[in-house]
Amino acid sequence: QVQLVESGGGLVQAGGSLRLSCAASGSIFRINDMGWYRQDPGKERELVAVITRDGWTKYADSVMGRFTISRDNSKNTVYLQMNELKPEDTAVYSCNANGVYTYSGERDLGVWGQGTLVTVSS
């Protein structure tokens, strides 16, 4: 069974920084895409950033230039460095792994983490 565990959320003042981590565990052979999404209560979940296995990245316009996504394929881990945080960045941030293949034969899985809360105070 593949699981994603996020860490690094918390409370920060506007203008500050946080770094989120998401580690995938299980009998993993390959993960194609890894990404971060966020959801504020009462709003739809939105894509924050995604990175392919080869390092191609895509960002939401609202975080472009402030957030940086990266990954370590050897550790099946994805990171989100968040700088210049704003109160509107407050949300539950969830990690996603898409196109997961395992040594036990599972193919093209999509897996979500449990989410970590980021609160930015003004």
Termini separation: 40 Å
**Main sheet properties:** 7 strands, mixed
Strand percent estimate: over 45%
The tally of beta strands, per DSSP, is 11
Shape: elongated
Q: Which stretches are low in confidence, meaning pLDDT under 50 for 5 or more residues running?
A: none
User: Could you give the order of the helices and strands?
Assistant: EEEEEEEEEEE
Share in helix: under 10%
**Spatial extent as radius of gyration:** 14 Å
Mean residue pLDDT: 96
Structural class assignment? mainly beta
Total helices: the number is 0
Layout of SSEs?
Elements: E1 3-7, E2 10-13, E3 18-25, E4 28-39, E5 46-52, E6 57-59, E7 67-72, E8 77-82, E9 91-102, E10 109-112, E11 116-121
Give an overview in words.
The chain has 122 residues and is an all-beta fold. It has strands spanning 3-7, 10-13, 18-25, 28-39, 46-52, 57-59, 67-72, 77-82, 91-102, 109-112, 116-121. Strands 2, 4, 5, 6, 9, 10 and 11 form a seven-stranded mixed beta sheet that branches. The radius of gyration is 14 Å and the shape is elongated. 28% of the residues are buried. The mean pLDDT is 96.
Short description:
The protein is mainly beta and 122 residues long. A hairpin with a 6-residue loop joins strand 4 (28-39) and strand 5 (46-52).
Structural key phrases:
single chain; 60% strand; seven-stranded mixed beta sheet; 122 residues; four-stranded antiparallel beta sheet; mainly beta
